[in-house]
Structures are given as structure tokens and as C-alpha cells.
């Protein structure tokens, strides 16, 4: 079996004028499209951006403060 063409037959498509133009107010028939990036994207020079580094430092300080508070409360409870 032969595959059907992706575009409809222009002779049987409503809204087309002679020569293949589209009448005002009509949409063109659907057809297959290929989209994507035209050229390969360059690789990033840095693995970690400054924002990522600052975020890691802030989260680490928060966790250390949380652990230190827990240890302090534990010692205060036992004393």
C-alpha cells in the first residue's frame, strides 16, 4: 500500500482560488512541518553559574544552622 501524501488534493480542497491561493478568511490546509534549532547550540563554558553557587552556599548554611540549633536544644534539655 502506498502512503498518502501529507497535503490534501488542491482540486478537492475548499477555499482555494485558481493558482493555489487562499481566499481571505480561510486558513491554509494543514501540512507537515519540520521545526527545530537550525544550528547546534554551543556548550556552556561553566558547569555551575554564580546563582547556583550562591544557592548551594545559602542552603548549606541553613542546614548547618538547623543542625546546630538542634544540638544546642538537645544539650540544653539534658543539662
Automatic annotation (TrEMBL):
Segments spanning the bilayer are 52-75
Which keywords, in A-to-Z order, does the entry hold? Membrane, Transmembrane, Transmembrane helix
* Transmembrane helix found in the keyword field: yes
**InterPro entries, from UniProt?**
DUF6480
Q: What are the boundaries of the region Disordered?
A: 1-46
Annotated Pfam families? DUF6480
What is the official name of this protein in its record?
Uncharacterized protein
State the organism of origin: Mycolicibacterium agri
Amino acid at each position: 500500500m502506498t502512503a498518502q501524501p501529507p497535503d490534501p488534493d488542491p482540486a478537492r480542497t475548499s477555499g482555494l482560488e485558481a493558482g493555489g491561493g487562499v481566499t481571505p478568511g480561510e486558513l491554509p490546509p494543514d501540512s507537515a512541518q519540520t521545526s527545530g534549532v537550525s544550528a547546534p547550540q554551543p556548550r556552556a563554558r561553566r558547569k555551575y553559574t554564580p546563582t547556583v553557587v550562591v544557592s548551594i552556599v545559602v542552603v548549606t548554611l541553613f542546614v548547618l544552622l538547623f543542625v546546630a540549633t538542634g544540638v544546642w536544644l538537645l544539650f540544653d534539655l539534658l543539662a
